[in-house]
Amino acid sequence: MAQKPDNLDKTGQYKKIRNPRKRAFLAALAHTGNVTDAADIAHISRSAHYQWLEADPVYAAAYDDAMEQAAERLEAEAKRRAVDGVEEPVFYQGKQCGVIRRYSDSLLMFLLKGAKPDKYKERTSTELTGAGGKPLTVAFVSPGEGEGEDGGA
């Protein structure tokens, strides 16, 4: 569900923007999450957006809000696909005979890792040992030492 442009305001900066081209771009960005697509929708150049971003701190704050809203839309869609699933048609002999609901375990894992990173983070450890499980011997060699030995210069 697309949000109306006036709902795009977390910091209060968006309502301060009077330029209708800036407002149109920010609304499109909140919906698409993509600068190129938002610029096309708002009928502006990408360079205009980047100029505004450099020159106008109020616009920059509203841009951050729009990007946050776009990220929240993506997260909501990921949650929908992971938890609610999506219906896919089932065909038999070329004709649709039903639907099956598919869930995304990988999206669910990403959501869990984001929500509870300490619990669901990847845990790895690396242990180095020498031959036969003996401790490694570390030797620091200065440049020039050992030249001519074991294929050295």
Please provide a written account of the structure.
- This protein has six helices and two strands.
- A two-stranded antiparallel ribbon has the order 1-2.
- The protein has 153 residues and is mostly helical.
- Helix content is 48%, strand content 10%.
- Helix 1 (20-32) packs across helix 2 (35-42), helix 3 (46-55) crosses helix 4 (57-84) and helix 4 (57-84) crosses helix 5 (105-115).
- The chain starts with 19 loop residues before the first helix and ends in a 33-residue tail after the last helix.
- A hairpin with a 2-residue loop joins strand 1 (86-92) and strand 2 (95-102).
- The model is unreliable at 1-7 (pLDDT under 50).
Spatial order of the strands forming the largest sheet: 1-2
- Low-pLDDT stretches are 1-7
- Tell me the number of helical segments per DSSP (H or I, 4 or more residues long): 6
Give the averaged pLDDT, no decimals. Answer: 86
Largest sheet: 2 strands, antiparallel
User: What amount of the residues lies in strands?
Assistant: 5-15%
Number of E-state strands: 2
Radius of gyration: 27 Å
Helix content estimate: 40-55%
Order of helices and strands: HHHHEEHH
For the record, give the distance between the C-alpha atoms at the N and C termini, rounded to a whole number.
69 Å
Strand-pairing-aware structural class = mainly alpha
Shape descriptor reads flat
